[in-house]
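Sample entry (86 residues):
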Amino acid sequence: MIALSRLGAQLLSHRNEIDAAGGVLSKIEAACKRFDELEGYLYSNIGSLTDYGRAWRQCQDTSYCKKFPVRAGLGRLLVHPQSLLQ
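Predicted structure, serialized as C-alpha cells:
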C-alpha cells in the first residue's frame, strides 16, 4: 500500500500548488474526494480483496466472494483482474 499513500501525497501536493497559484480547486478536490473513497474501500475490504485475488490466481471459484457496493463513479477506478487478460 506504499504506492497508494504516495498517490495520496501527490494529490495533496498538486492541490496545494493549485491553491498557491490561485487556481480553481474544484477538479482536484473532486479527485481527492474520490481517492479518499477508494482508499477507504480498499483498507476496509483488504482481507476480502486478498482472498479474492488468491482464489482467482488459483483458478478457484470466486463466486463466494462478497460483493461490496461501490459508488457508480468509483467503479471506473476499479479494474477487475480478468479484464486485464482480455
